[in-house]
Design brief:
The chain has about 160 residues and is mainly β. The chain is built from 2 helices and 11 strands; from the N terminus they run ββββββαβββββα. It has a 4-stranded antiparallel beta sheet with strand order 2-11-6-8, with no helix packed on it. Strands 4-9-7 form a 3-stranded antiparallel beta sheet.
């Protein structure tokens, strides 16, 4: 580590013609990953796109591949398993499985286009301890939607 906010990550560029991941702005959480090849993603289709980079993360860290908000807003493009997880022990090329959610239009991406963001985070390993029952909590067993959040759901119907 070079300072308290910078982690040294070993990077192998598998394609010298592509840039290394880079943060677009100071303070950004995600570094941009680019497409290694041109792709055409049909309506509601998915394609796995190589990025031309491999990394070696220190133990205790993982990288998470997130969608780019601009591609999602403009084209309905997202990542199938978002966020994709790159474990510390993985040394292969990072690839991104993109999904075109648009039902009418294909999405064309070109070599070098920014397609995803790589967010690196410290992660904890858990030691799972089996018990007879769990301690109580305010939420309890409330699952999907139990905390509300959708105003229309609480609005009475006439």
């Amino acid at each position: 580590m070079t300072d308290h906010s910078t982690l040294e990550v070993l990077l192998l560029r598998l394609d010298a013609g592509l840039p290394a991941p880079v943060y677009a702005h100071a303070g950004d959480a995600g570094a941009d990953l680019v497409a290694r090849e041109d792709v055409l993603i049909p309506p509601q289709g998915r394609v796995t796109v190589p990025t031309g980079v491999a990394i070696a993360l220190p133990d205790g860290y993982a990288a998470f591949v997130h969608p780019r908000s601009g591609l999602a807003a403009r084209h309905g493009l997202t990542i199938v398993n978002a966020p994709g997880t790159v474990d510390a022990g993985y040394r292969g090329e990072i690839a991104v499985t993109l999904l075109n959610t648009d039902v009418h239009n294909a999405v064309e991406l070109f070599r070098g286009d920014r397609i995803a963001q790589l967010v690196i985070q410290r992660v904890e390993r858990a030691r799972f301890v089996e018990v007879e029952r769990l301690p109580g909590s305010q939420r309890g067993e409330g699952g999907f939607g139990s905390s509300g959040g959708w105003l229309a759901a609480s609005t009475p119907t006439p």
